[in-house]
Amino acid sequence: ACFALSIVLARLSKADPLQYVSLSFSIFIEAIAVIPQRKRFAVTKRMPALASHSFALLVLSRGLRIAMWGLMCFDGEYEFALMAADVAQCMLLGEFVRAYVRCARSGTSDLLFVDTKYG
Fold first, then answer.
1. Which of 62, 61, 56 is nearest to 83 (CA)?
2. How far apart are the first and last CA of the chain?
3. What's the angle, vertex CA 80, arms to CA 12 and CA 21, rounded to 5?
4. String of b and e for 7-46 (b: at least 16 CB within 10 Å)?
5. Cα dihedral 66, 83, 24, 74 sign
6. Do the beta carbons of residue 50 and residue 58 sit within 8 Å?
7. Where do runs of H (alpha helix) occur along the chain?
8. Is the dihedral of CA 34, 90, 93, 54 positive or negative?
9. How far apart are CA 104 and CA 60, in angstroms?
10. Interatomic CA distance for residues 110 and 100, integer angstroms
11. What is the dihedral of CA 5, 91, 49, 114, to 10 degrees?
12. Which of 4, 27, 35, 100 has a 20 to 30 Å separation from 58 between CA atoms?
């Protein structure tokens, strides 16, 4: 599905098709890959320290890529589908970021998920 979407969007884009397909495919796969990890985090209610730090680095890289999209927009280049995929991935990681910051402030090594509705 991600590859098919990449091919369709490449036909609509003015960019080089091979570069566009490879870039968009990697962005879409990264965004989809977060979903099972997020579900596991919600089920187990905890994440080991090493995994939580790798997720934090993933969030940092997405933030830098969104800054890159902003600079590209400033230069007049717009790739709305790719920008939307990155923003969607950041939104999926939002709950993780809140938990990571909370645990970093409290000094715990493992990331613990606390449901704000019940706890």
1. 62
2. 38
3. 50
4. eebbeebeeeeeebbebbbebbebbeebeebbeebeeeee
5. negative
6. no
7. 2-12, 17-44, 49-74, 80-92, 94-106
8. positive
9. 15
10. 9
11. -130
12. 4
Identity of the amino acid at 65 = R
Q: Which residue has the tokens 């830098």?
A: 64
Q: Kindly report, residue by residue over 35-94, the tens digit of the pLDDT.
A: 888 788 778 777 777 888 888 888 888 889 888 888 988 988 877 777 887 888 888 887
Please indicate, yes or no, whether the overall pTM of this predicted structure exceeds 0.70. no
CA angle at residue 28 from 23 to 33, to 5 degrees?
125
Residue 26 CA to residue 47 CA, distance in Å, equals 25
